[in-house]
Amino acid sequence: MARTRSEASWVELYQKALFEDDSSALHARVEAAQQAIQQRARELWHADGAGKQIDYRERHELETALYFLKLLRRFGAQPNATH
């Protein structure tokens, strides 16, 4: 199944956040991904209310992505521990 433009957008931003290796850019990447995910969730919410068929798999993917972004924000912002 082909991805819609909105779906492709949040997925791309999410992947960029996951693989960001510059700790100074991580916060901005996570924030951009979260905003795109939240926008896509609103689109799906309105589609459901308008009686359009929606993809429940994508809803689950959005929830999962937000969960991992929260973890990334929490642990990615931690300074490297020295032993």
Approximate helicity band: over 70%
Mean pLDDT, to the nearest integer, reads: 83
| Total number of strands | 0
Strand-residue fraction?
A: under 5%
> What would you report as the Rg, rounded to the nearest angstrom?
15 Å
How many separate helices? 3
Which oligomeric state applies? Answer: single chain
Describe this structure in words.
The protein is mainly α. It has one domain. The protein contains three helices and no strands. It is elongated, with a radius of gyration of 15 Å.
Nutshell version of this structure?
With 83 residues, the protein is mostly helical. It is 75% helix and 0% strand. The longest helix is centred in the middle third of the chain and has 27 residues, at 23-49.
Write the layout of secondary structure elements.
Blueprint: H1 5-18, H2 23-49, H3 56-76
Helix pairs in contact: 1-2, 1-3, 2-3
List keywords for this structure.
83 residues, mainly alpha, 3 helices
